[in-house]
Amino acid sequence: MTAAPRTVAPAAVRAPSAEAVTPAPDRSARPRRGRRVLRLVSPIVLFAGWEAAARTGLLPPEKLPAPSEVLRTGWRLTAEGTLAVHLLDSLQRAALGLVIGGGLALLLGAVAGLLRVGDDLVDPPVQMARMLPHLGLVPLLIIWVGIGEELKITLVALGSFFPIYFNTYAGIRDIDERLVEAARACGLGQLARLRHVVLPGALPSLFLGLRLAIGAAWLSLVVGEQVNAQTGIGFLMMEAREFAQTDVVLLGLLVYALLGLLSDLLLRLAERRTLSWRRGLKAT
Amino acid sequence: MATRPEGDLSPVLTAGGVRRSFGVSVVLDGIDLTIAPGEVVALLGGSGSGKSTLLRILAGLDPDASGNVRRPLHHAVVFQEHRLLPWKRVLDNVALGLSGPDVRTRARAALAEVGLPDRDTAWPAELSGGQAQRVAVARALVREPELLLLDEPFGALDALTRLRMQQLFIRLREQHGFAALLVTHDVDEALLLADRTLVLEGGRLVEDAPVPLAHPRTPDDPAFGALRRHLLERLGVAA
After folding, report:
1. Are residues B109 and B65 in the same domain?
2. Where is the ABC transporter domain (chain B) (predicted)?
3. pLDDT digits (tens, 9 = 90+) for A180-192
């Protein structure tokens, strides 16, 4: 609609950029593809070297078995059903801890973000507690809740609490006050404003908090499952260590890595679907 | 003093003794104002004179002000920035806060009226500044307001877009007959659109004058020029 004043400027801008843009894909596309291949080279060489060194006996198998050996072990444990049992237990701990810690963080973060009284009462102790490295609390937690399931779940809950709390708080605080006012002018009550303005406005932050929390949850689980666990991936690794089954230890690490990767991927997918309005934001 | 009853029609907006202070500085020091149904009133004033503060009070958006304001149930506000929710598509932004079975139809009709019938599924971020402001106007219009409160609604737009929006405003007002309070710092805009001009200075309304120009108005009309000079003088700008 502002065609008249605009045609002048873009035309002037387009002329030089047209020269720059057209050759650029030619120059950058091939190197980009080339670079992607190049970036695969060193990992492949590393793994191949590892495999070769293990097979020739250069690497003692009890120190570092061949990658193919680790995969074979993974296949064996999967076929036996052992891996699934331990994986399910680990997942259950992670989910439970995440729900408890994340739920509490969401609640307190919302109270602190939405209400001035909540901010004054809730935020200072949380800020102080943040300074404690939660994995360092293990001895204290063992005294408090023992060495059973409670310990693992508490650790995960503690680990996931802080990222979600801080991002909930920041997400609510960063909402443009003018949008809230506009919603009020449109006749939206407090609940409707929460639903239509505050929640969607804070959602990008909530997603960020959740991603960080899931990372922290896996980390907490790794530590927690090494304390007197009877099941779980961590237990699998500790047990394997006692019997010097290094391949199983490596498999456990691989499973942890895959879990982290997979959860991050799923979350990013959900984020892309939910926050599709931000794509428009980037387009302009 | 700003009272100007038109016939027997009861005013669509009545404000009495409106006061507002921020700390020690008194921004509004007793404002009395009435607006008749269908009347367009322009509120002029230098920057920082409290125009926007008054508009927010009249819209019921400032709980810390004192005084009485009676506003119609059906009123709507258009701000200087479009203030569309970036996470709602255009149509949902227009229909924000409305309920009923025909809301979407009404929202579509409002979008068509501002000339954007096919942008209903766009995200606000995909719109130009002028388009976004049209959507904001549609969001106000769909509420079928008896009173429209506009806070420098075209101030952030480029000159040509502003002219188009002013024409759109004239057309919509003819069709819908709403009353309007238009906060502006643009004397030309006030004289083009308003039936009456108010000047806010030192927390009080220091001038309340009708605009006795026939429509359609043009700035090159000599009477327009005289009024323009007068208002500019009132605002402390030597013509």
Report:
1. no
2. 13-227
3. 999 999 999 999 9
Say yes or no: B229 and B178 in one domain: yes
- CB distance from B79 to chain A under 8 Å? yes
What's the domain count of chain A? Answer: 2
Q: How far apart are CA B213 and CA B192, in angstroms?
A: 9
In what helix (H) or strand (E) does residue A101 lie, and over which residues does it extend? Answer: helix A82-114
> Measured between CB atoms, which of B85, B126, B139 is closest to A196?
B85
CA B77, B78, B80 angle in degrees (round to 5)? 135
The enclosing domain of B203 has a CATH number of 3.40.50.300
Q: What is the mean pLDDT of residues B166-173?
A: 94
Residue where a domain terminates, one of B101, B127, B144 = B144
B198 in the same domain as B134: no
For A265, left (φ over 0), alpha (ψ -120 to 50), or beta?
A: alpha
Average pLDDT of chain B is 91
- Nearest residue of B to residue A176 by CA position? B83
Per the CB < 8 A criterion, the answer to whether B183 and B51 are in contact is: yes
Q: Are residues B151 and B230 in the same domain?
A: yes
pLDDT digits (tens, 9 = 90+) for B69-106: 999 999 999 999 999 999 999 999 999 999 888 999 99
Same domain, B92 and B65: no
Judge if B200 and B214 occupy the same domain.
yes
Contacts of B77 in chain A (CB under 8 A): 182, 185
Answer whether B125 sits within 8 Å of A281, measured CB to CB.
yes
Same domain, B1 and B106: no
- H helix runs in chain B, sequence order: 51-58, 90-94, 103-113, 129-141, 159-176, 187-193, 222-234
- Would B124 be classed as within a structural domain? yes
Cα–Cα dist B234/B239, whole Å: 10
Instruction: For A110-136, write each residue's pLDDT tens digit.
Output: 999 999 999 999 999 999 999 999 899
pLDDT in tens, B190-211: 999 999 999 999 899 999 999 9
Instruction: Kindly state whether residue A271 falls inside one of the protein's structural domains.
Output: yes
